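Hello,

I think I submitted the N-carbamoyl-L-aspartate job twice by accident. Can you confirm which output corresponds to this input? Input:
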Amino acid sequence: MPTQSQSPHLPFGENKQADWYGKDILSVKQFSREDLEYVFGVAHEMRGMVERVGTFDLLKGKILANLFYEPSTRTSSSFTAAMERLGGSVIPINEVKYSSVSKGESLADTVRTLECYADVIVLRHPETGAAAIAAKAAKKPVLNAGDGVGEHPTQALLDAFTIFEELGVGQIDGMTVTMLGDLKYGRTVHSLARLLSLYKVKLNYVSPEILRMPKEVMEEVAAKGIPQAEYTALEKVLPETDVLYVTRVQKERFENLEDYEKVRGAYVIDPEIMKAAKQEMIVMHPLPRVGEISPDFDDDPRAAYFRQMEYGLYVRMALLAMVLGKA
Ligand code: NCD
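Support: Only one job matched these inputs. Its output is below.
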């Protein structure tokens, strides 16, 4: 067990510090409602610090290994930015083909190697459960940055923080959240549906028949007493929606490209369609988008997807500080 240094801590939630110090973040199932409030509080504080001073030394001397076996723009660069804004540094492994992975090294050995040099490991991998395997091999904290079609917990945390910041404190309860697009292969919605089930929300799932939300996720959400309904058309639920969460059809996960061709472009959000939605609501997307939201909608104040990326920086700063014992 590493020992804690005497560096100053951010001035909140002292008693919660031990809860996350040294822990892995593998699934949203690890989080209670109280934990979320704590993460949001730290993230909010991080936002204030970045606005005031830009970069500060909370994680000075700490090193993050950023290990990505799948493409990434936002997750990878926001973890890098988060670590550097906290005064730490990063070992980037975005091109595993240039690492010993291409020589056949196992995930467990790769992770054991990286933890010799780093204090925390962020991992994105194409296989469900890979983050848990890595965490078992490593003594240092592993943060799951997406494991195949499994989970993407840090994205769900930043999504929930976005709702919290955009629609007001305490406003998640009572909200109708509509998830649209590829609910079968989209790991972000698997994590987000589970996480939002901690609140009194209503969840609508709108997807083509072949891309419905997995039963397993729906059963977990139902067990929390959350109402859920499935649709193939958006029109019916758009007017009642407070958060419209749009997703990309995950081409790379299809076994057969003909099926992909049948469902690509099934839904396109544009200013015309959005006339039927409330004025006080937000449209989110984990991005990248490949046609599901028309750029013509980007200037609408309800388009929250670019702001959502920025919230991701603050949430990832909060998570790094927490697992490294500095928040
Ligand atoms: C998502 C992912 O990788 O699951 N992207 C992200 O992390 N922001 C969504 C996607 O790729 O469609």
